[in-house]
Design goal:
2 domains, two-stranded antiparallel ribbon, transcription regulation, mainly alpha, protein dimerization activity, Fe_dep_repressor_sf, Iron (Metal) dependent repressor, DtxR family, DNA binding, elongated
């Protein structure tokens, strides 16, 4: 997953949380970057037809952008489940965040064959908790 995909995934999640356009500040906070960096990348994504940006309102994914964001989120979910359920990594969220930028589609597909992923993934992702709903429920049960 490249940087553009990480931005698309984050826009997708913030749109779900805010039930509307993703504000630059919210994106910057979630990504741990400056608002200027967000504006620059959102501009590039808009040029590629993946995002529509309205000044002072925020970014909204286009249909193509939403498809790529959903794919990126699914890769992230696969990583979380693999780290949590197969490798039993305690801080699987931090590890998944670090690995998501270097995992390609082929590796994600292979990891997917050995995890128990929900069929509704990535729609089962809990945007505010920034993790799979299934993993949230598992954590609450412990």
């Amino acid at each position: 997953m490249n940087t553009a995909d990480q931005y698309l995934k984050t826009i997708y999640l913030v749109q779900r949380i805010e039930d509307g356009p993703a504000a630059t500040g919210a994106l910057a906070d979630r990504l741990g970057v400056s608002p200027a960096s967000v504006n620059e990348m959102v501009g590039k994504l808009q040029e590629r037809g993946l995002v529509e940006h309205e000044k002072y309102r925020g970014a909204t994914l286009t249909e193509d952008g939403e498809e790529r964001a959903s794919d990126a989120l699914q890769t992230y979910c696969i990583l979380e489940r693999f780290l949590a359920n197969v490798l039993e990594v305690d801080d699987f969220r931090m590890e998944a965040k670090q690995l998501e930028s270097v995992i390609d589609e082929t590796v994600a597909e292979r990891l997917d064959t050995i995890i128990d992923r929900e069929p509704q993934c990535p729609e089962c992702f809990h945007a505010e908790e920034d993790m799979c709903t299934y993993l949230v429920e598992e954590g609450e049960a412990d």
